[in-house]
Every structure is written in structure tokens, then in C-alpha cells.
Predict the structure.
Amino acid sequence: MSTAPSSVKPAAVLHDIDWGTYTRLLRAFERRRRFRLTYDRGMLEIMSPLWEHEKSAYLLGRFIDVVTEELRLLCEPGRTVTLRRRRKSRGLEPDNCYWIANAGRLAGKTRLDLRVDPPPDLAIEVDLTHSSLDRMSIYAALGVPEVWRATCEGLTFNILEAGVYQVRTHSLSLPRLASADLVPVLAQLGRTDTTALVAQFRDWVRQVLLNRTG
């Protein structure tokens, strides 16, 4: 990613917060989606995403839309839905998330319950402000199989293996796609119109990705 590191800190980091308080705060912030809440065993971080953060999350999400559309894959988007498990005492809101392999299991669902529903197959994590909590460990505890993590240093595809994320060259959910495929387009973020970038990426998918085996 070409975005420079931000000096903006989380809005608040609270300690000794029980699950009931976390749940009540989620309801209180439900209509104020510019705030994101991350909970990890008693610690609660309240973050307000930055402009460059949202642009990166949107563009990566559009890339996933394009690939699933062009490959004719079932896909259920979760956007920034809260992922939480009381038994794990953890919860967060991804920057984007998708059910792909498990899309059929979410068909017709109006409410997500990770006690019975599968976690998203793929989540997007844009970390330009250096969260005070280890969000990747929370994704792992919730069992999210794949996280695309964008930082000031670049983009990595992180695959959950034996409870720990390992950086891999190719996506698990979209196995024809490599993280290196997205670098040239992401490098243009901020210098080229976002609509043009998505169109450029769609052309590449049709010309290159659809002809790959995998």
C-alpha cells in the first residue's frame, strides 16, 4: 500500500469490560457505524476509521466482487457485520467479509449467529493505524480461514493453519488469485479514479485470471 502511516490513535481503549457491557455498547453504537468496536477478553478498543482506510477496504472488496462475479462463484457479503463469540470472549468488525465456500449456508439468513453459522470464509483487514489489540489473533480465535491484511508495507494473504495464520502467495477462497496480482492496481490508489481501477482490474480478470487453472 502506498498510504503513509497515520498518527491517529484509537478513540478509546477500555480495560476490565465484561461481555454484557460490550454487548450493550454494540447496541448503543449500532447506528453510528463510523465507530468500530474490537473486544478481546476484557479489553475494548473503539476506533474511528480514516478516509484512506475506508478507500483501501472498499477497493479490496470490489476486487472480490469482480472475481466472484467473473468466475460465477456464489458469494454472500457480510460487510462490517460484528463477528463475536461469547465462549471465546472475543469480537470484532472486519473491514469487509465474505462467505464463498459456505455461501449456501447463509442463504436466507437475516441474523448471524456464530454458535451455529460458519464464520466468513474471507475477511479484509486494513491496518493503517496500528490497532492496540491483536486483531489477527481474534480472527484466528473466531475461526476465519483467510484474512487479506493491508498495511503500509503491502498486502498479504493470511491462511489459518493449525490455529495460526501463515502468509501464502495465493488465496484459499479464490485459489487462482495471488496477492502479487493486486499490487499493481493497489499502487494506483489515490492517483487513479476508483471506478477506473475496478474496470482495469475486471479487464485483467477476463484476460488473465479466467485462463488460469487452479
Summary: The longest helix spans residues 51-70. The chain has six helices and eleven strands. Residues 12-211 form a domain with the tt1808, chain A fold (CATH 3.90.1570.10).
